[in-house]
Amino acid sequence: MRLRLVPEQTSFDFFNRWKLWLGLSGLLMLMAFGSFALRGLNYGIDFRGGTTIRTESATNLDVGVYRDAITPLGLGDVLISEVFDPGFRADQHVAMIRIQAQDDEEAINAETVQSVEGALQAVVPDIKFVSVESVGPKVSGELVQTAALAVVLAIGAVLIYIWMRFEWQFALGAVVALVHDVLLTIGIFSELQIKFDLAIIAALLTIVGYSLNDTVVVFDRVRENLRKYKQKPLKDVMNISINETLSRTLMTSVTTLLALIALFVLGGDVIRGFVFAMIWGVIVGTYSSVFVASAILLFLGVKRDWSKPDPKNAGNQFANVDA
To answer: Is-above-0.85 flag for pTM?
Structure first.
């Protein structure tokens, strides 16, 4: 017996209160924008600037030990990652320690670097400090602009793609849904003040792709059913289409969420922000493909060339409706 999250055939009315869903989504978008405008984002090292210390030791690298040694110094945002390279010796363990800029300075001062080195030497006696590099606020500011441009260009490319594949009403609905997903994700990060770095930008672009995939599946079925049910109102055709794709949509979302939740619980602090963004994005993306993109399409309507049927073919058309 196959597992089903929903019955094989459903007849939910998704558009009974479509104006309410659009109003709620609009309110959430305003709240997200307001939070971003008033509170801003908790930018990570990638966007604020900071200092990177490269270390090397013969001892197996334990990120937890490194973090426990540095945390008492109160340096704020610190990222620790192991560097892998096929050319490394078996006893060559390299780490990158990234420390945020302190008090709007371009780099941490020499005394702070010495404090970090002393703390690490206390727990890893054979550690060597290979290099110390800094990223200033100017470079970080350019990175913010580039990241924002990447998201805008991705959404613009989606607009062109959907417009060419369907009609402009479909394209506008899809783009509004994508803006909804991105804005709500930024809003939740602003409200909770979760660290926002380049990994979150990658998550935003992934969310755009995931949400678009869900929306295109629904729109494809709508287009097919518009040809099949030529006399049915657009609302009925869209309800039929979403019910027909509901099982696929929920199964995809649930299986994706199962993997993401496992990563969120077991993946550690390094990827937790990215995974949280993906979990949130899958939820709002699934919601928006039905209650935002499809509702916008219902509001705008779709031009149907068969809206004035030929009387000679009326019998065949009604036969298709009965089918």
So the answer is: no
